[in-house]
Write a structure and sequence with these properties.
Elements (H helix, E strand, L loop, with lengths): L15 H19 L12 E6 L4 H13 L3 E5 L12 H11 L3 E6 L4 H8 L3 E7 L5 H17 L8 E6 L5 H10 L6 E5 L8 H9 L3 E5 L2 H4 L5 E5 L9 H5 L3
Parallel strand pairs: 1-2, 1-3, 3-4, 5-6, 5-8, 6-7
Helix pairs in contact: 1-5, 3-4, 5-6
Length: about 250
Amino acid sequence: MSFRQTHLLGIEPLQTTEIKTLLDLADRYADDNRRGRTQRNELAGLTMINMFFENSTRTQASFEIAARRMGADVMNMAMQASSIRKGETLIDTAMTLNAMRPDILVVRHPHSGAVDLLAQKVNCAVLNAGDGRHEHPTQALLDLYTIREEMAGRGKGIDDLRIALIGDLRYGRAVHSLAQLLGLYERLSFRLVSPPELSLPAPYVEALRSAGHDVVECHELEVGVQDVDILYVTRTQEERFPSPEEANRYR
């Protein structure tokens, strides 16, 4: 197994061999699930805590079910009703968690960088389940797995694909992570389709171009979706906008 990272906070530290390891493992587990073999013991004896400072029923449930199926003990902390609301800081929470000695923290937080800060203060592995406008690496890895499976069914790999990323590319944290993942492949052609104000942030665009990919930014949906292999569509991230009034422009 080729994976050396302690945490999964973002895509940038990952090597292509580590990404392949994760996707191949996911493939094995998905096949086992299809065959009804859902109970495993790889995480037996370990404790995982879900800390969701933002509500997300599907994401939290997915982590919980996966961990339990692999044998872990799981605790869900109700962060919306926690001492954070009484003035306790994230660092205070980290110190309390260290005393509990968990093995894995899964954290979702509305502020960019909060998960990274927490990872610096605890003595266990931390998985980023979405931090503000920054990244959502686990969702992006799942999206990449879906793309890989779909292309495999057509007898293709991911290299040389034509991909349209559509929607709110500015605030969509999953698309930020996915753009970095896809950038590790070869000779991709990207159409970045969004209103001008919601364009993919420049660092991600520049990284794709520096990696040798063809990147076209466009603001017309009819043009952006022509002759592509993959359409990746993300919703408007209304909760990330500076004001409700600005978000209302894109409803």
